[in-house]
Specification:
10 helices; alpha/beta; five-stranded mixed beta sheet; globular
């Protein structure tokens, strides 16, 4: 089966062609960093307008790269939610239009399912069930993934997601959007033990996250230095980045591994844009090895928002539940689990 995947949940317009949910033939991504950088974050109205301009050429490029046409497509899989409603509507409406005109079945996909199943596009794949952490700008969630279509939500962020916290801290420190890569780069020369930022553990045995307090602690620490000295040095910025990053990593790793232990699961899978962070990958690898857990994480290009992961999730959903309905609508909050 040849699947056309379409993703437009936030500020990346993406289209991909995937065969049988495993083989990527193309995966085209058009970003909007230059549009949103001066605002320090995504502006929903600008994002949706950019999707309108990009969706057609991105889909055409994905088909061209795969050396096929729409007539060869057997299924259209598109992100239905969660995300920015205006952005979602562009990709979702486009997919439904193609489905109606070309008489190709389509299926709406939960973005979180895409992140959790992106690992199935790699050569080495985990067996079910596994624990999946999906960490991105919009969410930080832990799922018990029982099969390719059966997800149990174990925990989610109560306020800022991990990626959102990275972006907001980057803005405080005067770093460009998106903040994650820039904070990671500065953290490499910093001392992660230099500043004791708080870790929000919440319920002792729970798996929910909270990063708003950490974000506020960084803001207050930064402001104290600026009030005292007028500005922060390069070394101080690096220490802030390293200490903040480590605080996020400690919570993500500990809660995910605790979830695996609690549910008797021997495999941990990492997904979402934050999982591109090298320090986070290394921390997970080290702790999983210490706890005798299998650890899987996709290549960085499959961690950020992309249509290939939507295609694989849509493929499995279609096989089990059949096509979606043209009357279906997008949703802003995940309905997974």
């Amino acid at each position: 089966m040849i699947i056309l995947g379409i993703e437009s949940s936030c500020d990346d317009t993406s289209a991909a062609v995937v065969i049988d949910g495993t083989a990527i033939q193309s995966n085209v991504i058009s970003g909007q960093e230059e549009i949103h950088n001066c605002f320090g974050g995504v502006v929903p109205e600008l994002a949706s307008r950019s999707h309108l301009s990009a969706i057609q050429p991105v889909v055409e490029k994905a088909l061209s790269d795969a050396k096929i046409s729409l007539d060869d497509i057997d299924l259209i899989a598109t992100t239905q939610g969660p995300g920015l409603s205006g952005s979602l509507l562009v990709g979702y409406s486009y997919a439904k239009s193609l489905s109606l005109v070309k008489k190709i079945p389509f299926v709406g996909v939960d973005h979180m399912a895409g992140h959790a199943l992106a690992i199935l596009l790699e050569e080495e794949t985990p067996d079910f069930p596994f624990i999946a952490l999906t960490a991105s700008g919009g969410t930080s969630s832990i799922f018990l993934v029982k099969s390719s279509t059966d997800f149990e939500l174990l925990g989610r962020t109560r306020d800022d997601a991990a990626g959102e916290a990275f972006d907001k801290v980057a803005k405080v420190l005067g770093l460009p959007y998106p903040g994650g890569p820039h904070i990671a780069a500065h953290a490499e020369t910093g001392d992660e033990k230099s500043i004791k930022f708080p870790r929000a553990w919440l319920d002792k045995d729970g798996f929910d996250f909270s990063f708003s307090g950490l974000k506020t602690a960084v803001l207050n620490y930064h402001n104290k230095i600026v009030q005292k000295n007028g500005s922060i040095t390069k070394e101080e910025r690096a220490d802030i980045c390293a200490s903040f990053q480590q605080a996020v990593i400690d919570v993500l790793v500990t809660k995910t591994i605790n979830a695996a232990r609690t549910h008797g699961i021997s495999t941990v899978v990492l997904g979402g844009g934050v999982s591109s962070n090298r320090a986070l990958r290394l921390a997970f690898s080290h702790e999983c090895d210490k706890c005798k857990l299998q650890f899987f994480v996709p290549a960085a290009k499959l961690c950020t928002d992309n249509a290939a992961m939507i295609a694989v999730a849509g493929y499995h959903k279609y096989l089990r539940f059949g096509p979606g309905n043209l009357s279906d609508d997008v949703y802003s909050r995940s309905q997974l689990g």
